[in-house]
Amino acid sequence: MNFIGTFPILATPFNEGGSLDLDSVERLVGFMAGIGVEGVTVLGVLGESNRMLDKEREALITRAVAAAGGRTRVIVGASHPGTQATIGLCQMARDLGADAVMIAPSMEPVPNEARVFDYFQQIAAAELLPIVAQDHPASTQVHMSIPLLLRLIDEVPAIACIKEEGLPTPVRVAALKQGMQKRRVPLLTGLGALYGYFDLMAGCDGFNTGFAFPEVLMAMERAARAGNLEESYRLYAKYLPLIVFEQQPGVAVRKELLRMRGLLNNANVRHPGAAITEGAARQLRDIIERVLPGVDITKAVQP
Asked: How does strand 131-135 pair with strand 39-42?
């Protein structure tokens, strides 16, 4: 699997009563495949995976893989504090037809990079699926050093990609690019594309994040890869107000945007997560009208 390009992190849709909304899952994946993303990720950090039962995970993965229909790849978040439990989630993903798994380490009472390395090594030894190793200290409270990430790349062949979200991301992306000598793997950036242009300039290979307009990220990444840095910057600057507003804590703003785009039946966040406030919803509508005046956002946007 090639991890170069744009791989949106998908929100998990829920019905009014809090049950899983599989129809919206199908519509969301279908839209992403239709605009030509290289892959999608379900059950990521902002996919509310920590609020889901195993049977719900199974149902969601099954529907996402079916909706993708081979048109785009499906990556499944499979992180768990327990190594054996993580392997079990990877097994589930493989059995249900996923193409790769995304895994982040969990915080331990005493930080220990050797244990983090061992965690990934044991999961890789199960020989299940390619691994996207996620470095996201904001959610995991685990700070993986550049030497640790380079060691993982060198010594764990199952790690096929690094998702770099440790700050400052441009500096870390550049250090990883420079440090990969024995083996090279793609680097993807996340954090809602907040530092997207700068990460592309530092050498990242694309996006693995949940910004609700992935067609913009695709255009940014492809322009940068073609050497058209001015166009990549123009797109970043144009959409930065939306990127910043969406990157507020939680997933409520992103879900409201996806609802406005017609991809989710509603913007429900599973309890105890908070829904978007009416004030924030008004601000969001104002920003969209400023950035995309008169544009029908239920269709693919021409950046």
From this structure: unpaired
Strand order from edge to edge, sheet including 187-189? 5-6, 206-207, 187-189, 159-164, 131-135, 100-103, 73-77, 39-42
Instruction: Map tokens 């030509």 to a residue.
Output: 36
Helix (H) or strand (E) holding 187: strand 187-189
Q: Which two tokens stand for residue 14?
A: 């829920």
**The model's pTM:** 0.97
Residue 76's φ and ψ, nearest 5 degrees, are -120, 125
Q: What are the per-10-residue average pLDDT scores of the chain (303 residues)?
A: 96 95 98 98 92 96 98 97 96 98 94 95 97 96 97 98 98 98 97 98 97 98 98 98 96 98 97 95 98 97 94
Whether the CB-CB separation of 229 and 238 falls below 8 Å is answered with: no
What is d(CA 97, CA 107) in angstroms, rounded to the nearest whole number? 29
β-pair partners for 6: 207
Q: Which domains are delineated in the chain?
A: 5-239 (3.20.20.70)
How many other β-carbons are positioned within 10 Å of the β-carbon of residue 227?
9
Distance of CA 182 to the CA centre of its chain: 27
